[in-house]
Design goal:
Aminotrans_V_dom; globular; 598 residues; alpha/beta; 19% strand; PyrdxlP-dep_Trfase
Length: 598
């Protein structure tokens, strides 16, 4: 009964935006809040007590079998059995994961195409990226919708994100870092001088924004995250956001993610609302959000001035892609003109254009011709007769201009992004429940691993940020410690995982605040980011020193299944074997030394 009660928990919990409505309308909703709290507490309590109660594992060979573990998983989360459509999509459209026996836990963002969709079309990509030397403001005002390929994908993405083209304009950027840099180069820091960010980790994109903004005179500020649970230090952040009543000028740019892409921590919508009330422009970083998470985002209540999200091509096979920068049309006029790189066009594949070249064998030319035909069949969705398809083919003319080529598309067809379509067909509830069950089981299982022959029950795994929790994201940050209490290097864990066909990532936690009672733990835990020693002069000049914690990171996609998390658990459990750890450390250091000598 308890398990069934927990399984329906998502239905009894209201949309989190109702809490925001309460904040804005000042109408108390005590019954809703108490029901929400009870549901979430019940979920966490049942998850903790249902898996391996009063049991810890000190030997990787003593773990329960996959079949036994999965049976207990389904008993605790019976609604997982209502998600067979996800498994069907995975088996049909992403069969390469099974063929290669690959566990992909290193993809952040949202995919565009399925593996089947791309490989039915030979080995050619669906589009290439071409850089544009234009400034952001000009592109937003005069860039238009671009080619048919671009406008079709823009329309798909705007619909997927529930964003209105009447209110927002979109540009494509080479990656997430480029999008952040474009904003920092164009934002009017002279009149709105502050940059306030809310990130519990370092990233190239954030570093790019901070450095660029600082050079332009911005006053850099950051939220802090309170040790040990790494929750936002609310008291400090509130002081940074709220302006004095006498001052009415614009405060600056508030950069806010709804979820941490490293720890999986979820943050309240109310921070954006509070920032807007106090004169900040809001940049919403949606790159860490999972598929359909935007369905719970109330754009009717909160209209961010900027939004950044990223897309990759094919899950588990092609992580390349692009980012999208959306700008509210009402703020475009305040942006400053700046010539920079980063904005890109999506163009038909280079291989298609190269087919204009008469060189090549007959077989190669035949392959290119087949590719053009398959491109039309697979990229285009809609009900067309064979005659209409032939007409559309004749309407596409490829014009060569020396070394520069372009495609003129006159058809009115729609580009098919099959991965987005799959996510739309599954919906928020099915995807959200499934991922919630998997990540919380994994956390529960990892916390059951303890080193043998230790009287203090020393754990193998330390998880940073939220642990078992209903509303957490599906990213997770952790470290492994040997029986002596020494950390196993994240890069070593990543390399060993690769050897076992499991893809992980690593990151760097930062902006942490330690209360006085944790001072001793701080001294043991905090480290300087690798590579910073060489840049000591630059660090002093910018008055910033990157201190934090290197961690292993994972993220579960909507295609993740129980076998994925079980395999990760059994892989991690190998580190309970002290001989295994020492042997792999020696092998890694030996190979690393040889690389340096070469």
């Amino acid at each position: 009964m308890e398990a069934e009660k927990v399984a329906t928990i998502h239905g009894c919990c209201p949309n989190p935006l109702l809490i925001l409505l309460e904040h804005q309308n000042q109408q108390p909703l005590p019954k809703i809040k108490s029901t929400t709290s009870a549901c979430r507490h019940s979920f966490a309590a049942t998850t903790t007590s249902s898996f391996f109660p009063n049991t810890h594992f000190t030997n990787h060979e003593s773990l329960p079998s996959y079949q036994e573990s999965f049976a207990q998983f389904l008993k605790t989360y019976p609604k997982y059995s209502e998600t067979p459509q996800v498994d069907k999509i995975r088996n049909q459209e992403y069969y390469h994961l099974s063929v290669s026996n690959h566990v992909c836990l290193d993809y952040i963002g949202i995919g565009l195409f399925s593996y089947l969709q791309v490989h039915e079309c030979c080995d050619y990509p669906f589009f290439d990226i071409s850089c544009k030397s234009v400034n952001l403001k000009s592109e937003l005002l005069h860039g238009g919708n671009g080619s048919h390929l671009e406008s079709s994908i823009k329309k798909k993405i705007m619909n997927f994100l529930n964003m209105s083209s009447n209110e927002y304009s979109m540009v494509f950027t080479a990656n997430r870092s480029s999008a952040f840099k474009l904003i920092s180069e164009s934002y009017p820091f002279k009149t709105s001088p502050k940059l306030l960010t809310v990130y519990d980790h370092e990233s190239e994109a954030l570093e790019t924004m901070v450095n660029t903004s600082e050079k332009r005179g911005a006053n850099i500020m950051s939220a802090e995250f309170k040790w040990p649970r790494l929750r936002i230090n609310s008291e400090k952040l509130r002081k940074l956001i709220i302006r004095k009543k006498r001052k009415k000028e614009s405060r600056g740019l508030f950069v806010f993610p709804l979820q941490s892409r490293v720890t999986g921590a979820s943050y309240s919508y109310q921070w954006m609302s509070l920032a807007q009330e106090n004169g900040w422009h809001v940049l919403l970083d949606a790159c860490a959000l999972g598929p359909k998470d935007m369905d719970s985002f109330g754009l009717s209540l909160i209209h961010p001035d900027f939004l950044i999200c990223s897309f990759y091509k094919v899950f588990g096979e092609n992580p390349t892609g692009f980012a999208c920068l959306l700008v509210k049309k009402s703020v475009v006029s305040m942006l400053e003109a700046s010539v920079s790189t980063g904005i890109v066009s999506l163009v038909p594949p280079t291989q298609l254009l190269n087919s204009l070249d008469s060189s090549g064998s007959g077989t190669e030319l035949e392959q290119k011709t087949n590719y053009v035909n398959k491109l039309d069949e697979l990229h285009i969705s809609g009900s067309y007769s064979a005659q209409e398809k032939r007409k559309e083919e004749s309407d596409q003319s490829i014009i060569a201009q020396g070394s520069n080529t372009k495609v003129e598309e006159k058809g009115s067809t729609e580009i098919q992004c099959r991965c987005l379509d799959h996510v739309d067909s599954l919906g928020l509830m099915q995807i959200g429940n499934r991922r919630r069950y998997l990540v919380n089981w994994l956390i529960s299982a990892l916390l059951k691993l303890q080193h043998p022959n230790r009287l203090d029950h020393f754990p193998l795994v330390k998880i940073y940020g939220p642990k078992i929790k209903f509303e957490r994201g599906t990213a997770m940050a952790f470290n492994l410690f040997d029986w002596k209490g020494e950390r196993v290097e994240p890069i070593l864990i990543q390399k060993l995982a690769d050897r076992n066909n499991i893809s992980l990532s690593h990151g760097f936690l930062s902006h942490m605040w330690f209360p006085d009672k944790y001072e001793e733990e701080k001294q043991r835990t905090i480290e300087r980011k690798k590579g910073e020693e060489k840049d000591d002069a630059d660090s002093k000049k910018s008055k910033r020193i990157d201190l934090g914690i290197s961690v292993v990171t994972i993220a579960l996609s909507f295609l993740a299944n129980f076998e994925d998390v079980y395999r990760l658990w059994t892989f991690i459990a190998q580190f309970l074997d002290a001989d295994f750890v020492e042997k792999e450390r020696w092998r890694y250091s030996s190979l690393y030394q040889k690389t340096i000598e070469v």
